[in-house]
# Entry
Amino acid sequence: MSETEKAEVSRGLENVYIKATSLTYIDGERGILRYRGYDINDLANNATYEEVVHLMLYGELPNSEQLKRVKDVLNSSYEVPEDVLRVMEVLPKDSEPVALMEAGLAALATHEKEFKWKERDREKALEIIGKVSTITANVYRVKQGLTPRVPSPGESYAKSFLEATFSKSFTSQESSMMDKFLVLYADHEVPASTTAALVTASTLSDMYSCMVSAITALKGPLHGGAMEAAFRQFKEIGDPSKVDDWFERTIVKGGNRLMGFGHRVYRTYDPRGKIFKSMAEVAAQGEARKYLEIAEKLETLGVKHFESKKIYPNTDFYAGILMYGLGFPDFMFTPLFALSRTLGWLAHVVEYVDEQHRLIRPRALYVGPGKREFVPLNQRK
Ligand code: ACO
# Structure
């Protein structure tokens, strides 16, 4: 028997371990998520995004001096070459938001002349995290026909981002919700987008290319696009009184997927989902309050209906309501996910290249015909 005859395909690479990591631990049965050993609840409640950035890139929560250093590098990295914003501005206003983000990053990459791994990887990652804030804010601004704007250096990455996006000031409570969003989405081991980034890093391509690979994989409705897809469900339902009928028609009889539910790893509630729900309860006013009521009714029906399959709300179910409550239209949800996950993508590629680099090159199990005789064109039927 040949090697390939013995091989088995792991559909969706389920339970395949492509790297070792000290970054993120997930216990999908018990609904536990930790970054470098710290429980996600502790981090979301007590640490700022900048502290988490230091934790993920440098291994430890920062002391005051280290935190200042992270903030200084982020603050000095918001500026991007003018042509990057011009590129985003001249593209069609109805471009896919994620495509605009890719264009911004690709434009930024043209300024990176001689990228070398292992020289200043963590510093570079910090600079990219700063610049991604500018690019994400301007996805919103370009799509709304507003003039581009660069975040101002300040105390908080989240606040600077919000204020650059909307050109208005935000309260410390609102900024803190944005900050928690950034912490909660910062990393999640190796989902499709991080795996795409790792494949690119494994060829020793540059960090911007890793980011573009990751973002394109993030976009789909089965991954990062699920926050928007979940929110659109709430909009489609339109009123809490219509939830039962919609669920019966669309999910039970229609056999469609309930977006914002289910996860490859969790077989219980996603711990991030619970934190988002409690924040959405605080942030959701007016229209957002109505969507929250719809989501809560849908959650009850979904949990009951999918109990035997162990399908529960994931992080995307309530996160969109929180972001909508902060003023973001739903087209911004995937770019916001990317803004936060930039940290995870870069921390994973740096960990991989620094500590365990090898070209990622899996195999495909050939199941086509055996050797066949070539038939010239004029003899084919
Ligand atoms: N609604 C209805 N049925 C579902 C759902 C769902 N949301 N999720 C899984 N299932 C069912 C499938 O139909 C399948 O049923 P079957 O065995 O009877 O055919 C079974 O559960 C297993 O589904 P798979 O797609 O094989 O499971 P997988 O682990 O690949 O799916 C995924 C994970 C893609 C996230 C899935 O749960 C899904 O499509 N969810 C909706 C989209 C979503 O919310 N994505 C966000 C994920 S989290 C994130 O990226 C941040």
Q: What stands out?
A: The first helix runs from residue 3 to 6. The chain has a mean pLDDT of 95.
